[in-house]
Design brief:
five-stranded mixed beta sheet
Amino acid sequence: MKYLRFKLLVLLCVLAHSLGSFAYDVVIDGIYYNLNKSNFTAEVTKGDYLYSGVVNIPEHIVNDNKNLYNKCYWQASFPQLC
């Protein structure tokens, strides 16, 4: 019984650790976004890879045939942009 509890605990830890890899909703042109479809906004966020060089962030993006406007937040990704 203790061994089964230990296996379940390890499984839960692995699952909890993997949740961080889904920290964004969509990638468009190499930029990671979180989407808020209720107010048609998108925000730039961290992704699987680091940004480097010049990153051009558009004023709006199209996702699922809907225009979403970028909303600027103070995020760890680009605090100097807001």
